[in-house]
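Quick one: structure for this chain?
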Amino acid sequence: MTRGAKSAQGDSATATPPLAGVRVFDLSSPIGPYCGRLLADLGASVTLVEPSEGDPYRRLGPFRDGLADPESSLAFGYYHAGKTSMVLNLESEAEQSRLVALAAEADVILISPSARRPLWGFSPETCDLAWAPQDAIVCSITPFGIGGPYWHRPFTHATSFAAGGQMGEMGVADSPPAAIPAEIHWHGASAHAAVAILAALAVDKAARGRFLDISAQEVEAFQLSAICAYHAQGIIPGQRHSGKVIPPSGLWECADGRIDIAAYADHHWPAFLEMLDHPPELSEPSLADMAVRRQIFDGLIPVIEGIVAGWDREDLFERGQRAGLPVCLRNTPSEFVDDPNLAERGFWADNCRAGGAPFTAPGAPILADPCLFRPAEPAVPRAGQGAETAAGGATGVAAASCSGNGHDRPLEGFRVLSLGAYVAGNVCAQILAGVGADVVKVENPSRPESLRGGGYNDGANLAQEPSGFTNTPLNAYLSRGMKNVGLDLFSEEGQQTLKDLAANCDVIIENFGGTVMAEWGATFDELRKLNPKLIMVSMSGYGRTGPRGSSKAYASNIASHTGLSEAWWNSGTFTDYAAAVHAALAVLAARIHVASSGGAVYVDAAQTEIFAAMAARIYLDPLVNGAESAVQASPAEGALMTRLVRCEGDDRWAIVEIEDIDQWNAACSVVGRQDLERDPSSSAGSDAGELAEAIDEWARRRTPRSVGHVMARAGVPAASVANGEEVYDDPQLHSRGFFEDVHHPDLGHLVLPAPPQRLSEAPGAFLAAPARLGEHSSEILGGWAGLSSSEIDDLIATGAVFDAGAVQR
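Got it. Here's what it folds into:
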């Protein structure tokens, strides 16, 4: 497989792209450019509508050769690749009329309106865009969604991210929380917007979800498991890191750099010893007990440090992986771009342009056979070029079709069989369930989902199903919308039953180790013989090919390997969620391909590549300018001041970000330092330190939420760095009906996030409550695989199938 070149199934470069003929108008900057880029990579014709002063990304670094020129922005060149450009002053009636005429044939319109930067023709009260064609899909991507108490708030990327809850978990306790850089928070919302758009395109034009409302805050909250913990025990979750993890997990200095180990299971300790060639200093049998290693942390750390320091990091990576240990290289962004696995898989592409010349940048986020995402053509280098081409090309082009339906559930009848485990696999399936797919999770009773275990339990007690299997709120949270079939996949009968199901579904999702599906006789090549229209998604850390194709990794490993941990923090699940939404997008694109060509599709979703494509700005300096990445979260580019301020409470913080003199003067007024105000025509001076001290002192006597509230009312972007409790009680989320009350027979009452994809005519919803293991085995084996009652009973009797209902009977 290669990106946009000849594939194992033929010349994929000449295949019709999934969104060929779909016309998109993009007015979503600075929040939604990545959504337009994804649609362009899928073959849509995307027109960027720039204001008179040019798109905001033209002023965003890094720049080619470090020259801050609008035509040299690498960020603009990457995120707007594949788009044509037109400049419109929408305060002019003549320009408004021109937009109406040009957009008359649009299929999709991307917008990011706000109360302080209203979009001409858009009504937040009715969510109506006056100049949109009758059957166009209008997709809004905003920090907090349309309406609600936060609609009028000023915002920046950092304040938007702080309100979602994840920032409150990042960083060492009692130090400022870590804000995420490079607009990654907004790019995540853009990926969810792309999923919603492809789901809406699956509905007949007459019944399409005409308005899509994507809130970046809801996307972050959807990914926040701390909500489950707070509801279950009333504790304040998200207690931040002490800097200590149980060895051998953590960062270790080798002779030539660092490695990151994620030893979360008992069998990882012997693998660690094998990696180090069984050093006698660690031969004490009691060290196999995680509790013992926790107790002697201070004495054990220097011993391990001394041993690891004598090894080269690549040697330990290879030895550890052979032993089955999730170990990775801890890279800077510059080190990551030199990773041979990316080169072997053809990830980098010369498809972007800045400063009058092409440059190397991350390629398509997903590798597929045949190709779904292909490198888009370079962005138009100067504002306004290509507008007439875009307008002319829009006339008479048919939108993509994939057997759309008129139902409230865009993907109703689309069968997804999920073998996904932990976060990435489960969430990919769950996203598809949220837009209407019929999803069944296959769970092995002899090795059930690890999230069912006590180590992941946020409840007061570990719940038990009537069958004896345990369950947790976290497992319920990640398995909503799915039915459950119990199959013993270590038995021949269970493996055959899996194939029977695969022959009668549309999609299979798996995120096992690289050899598992082959051991079960269920590789893509084998399953496509049974189902020539099958879409198979394989999710992994590094991809299924290349020198790291068989390597094991948790999301925390991927954060270290990609340089995310250097640029931000070592998040344990962030790349899991990013991979999940991109894999779901690939499924929807593959669905269009299958409907038009009838051929099967294999999706190879590598977390390293997905994250690099989404967070490309981190890597552009190393790739183009040969310098380490200068992109950081704080202070934001162009901001006069960014302050993370300590507030009243235990380890409680808020963020205040001042972008211009008007906001500067408003902040001065709020904190009672009018003497520091400046003339609107001037710039901030040497008194920035005085204002920072005044803000710190003012905030110290207030709660984080009150800091955000008072500053925002005055017109200053600010927000509480929310923890799980604040997100659980957040007035914006509740005003928009984000939380769902769910009753579970074993776990009781749960409060869980709704899908972040909001379609006005086809709203996202999880129709299936969290299932018990094997709850739907007989139903699905009969309905999907076509097995008779006697055949199912025989499989239950042999233990190949586990049916929770049979146990209760």
